[in-house]
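dude i think i finally got it to work??
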Amino acid sequence: MNEYSSKLLETAVNELSRLPGIGKKTALRLALHILREDSNFAENLARAIDKMRKEIVFCKKCNNISDSDLCEICSNYKRDENTICVVEDTRDVLAIENTAQFNGLYHVLGGIINPIEGIGPNDIAISHLIQRVNTEDIHEIILALPATVEGDTTNYYIYKMVKEFGVKVTTLARGVAVGDMLEYTDEITLGRSILNRLPFEDSVKKV
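look at this
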């Protein structure tokens, strides 16, 4: 006997439960909520998801998700074009923007070096970052990657690659605890870590 009393409901629950952090009970609650709403709600939701999936692109400059070739941050002339904050993914851009303590540009790697999972330097946007340093007037690179072994490994690799260009390389102050992901760090702590950033060489000496 079908525990959901409807194959259509079961299919919807199964699909919703594939989302991160969504179990079967939460998926059922969401599916029933959609059923209770008028048909416009479900149609608008489906249309928004479909449009997002088909039309979102990656910014050709920073690799952040965007609605156009240049994201709103890169196309904003008020931003400091001489400073680049290097992050793992879009969630980190959102976290740092929420602090209102950074006015430069970003570079989204799309991952970090992780040999165990088979992710090497060529699998993420490091070469694109080097190209930016080589062609743009970059004065400082802020390494804002996770405070993990993989994040530190990626930081050090990038530091070695850009050192020859004479660019100032800094990293977040360790107000962000070891093992923490930026998206889970509170805005005040993250903001202070950006403002009190350290020369990367100093952070290496302390390890």
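DSSP finds eight helices and seven strands in the chain.
im so relieved honestly
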